[in-house]
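Response to reviewer comment R2.3. The reviewers asked that we include at least one raw input/output pair. We reproduce the pair for MarR family transcriptional regulator here without editing.
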Amino acid sequence: MGETEPGVGPIEAADGDAWALTEAITQLRRSLRSSVREDFAWEALPMAQVEFLQRLAREPGMRIVELARKHRMATNTVSTLVHQMVQAGLVVREPDPQDRRAVQVRLTAAGEARLDAWVRANERRISAALAGLDESERAAIDAAVPALRALAERLDDLG
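Raw output as returned:
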């Protein structure tokens, strides 16, 4: 096996740009998750539920199988999470008007409110962190957002 620079692992040596981006995204997610937990306890709103609420806000009326596919999770796992969210009053199951045997999942007003509170808590934390950066760093982040969205969509497409 070829030698790498000291302190550089094989993944970093293979594709430093991709690995650096992966590390940055991982650190951002971890930092956001842990800092927003000051407002939301883990038990009150698990990350999987947050992601489902976000998806249902963008794509209302999804079926459980669609949620499972888009989140790359087992259907029974998604069904369990949706059941927990129904019990918590965050979502409802409704008959699919195209196929009465199937159900769609929709946000409730309580689900929308919980998601809105989650988004506002994250916005406060990100805004505070951005305020500590210099103008060129903020501009670079603003410029990168569309490309990061496109990258996320591409990764979803590669499924």
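The mean pLDDT is 85. The radius of gyration is 19 Å. Further pairs are available on request from the corresponding author.
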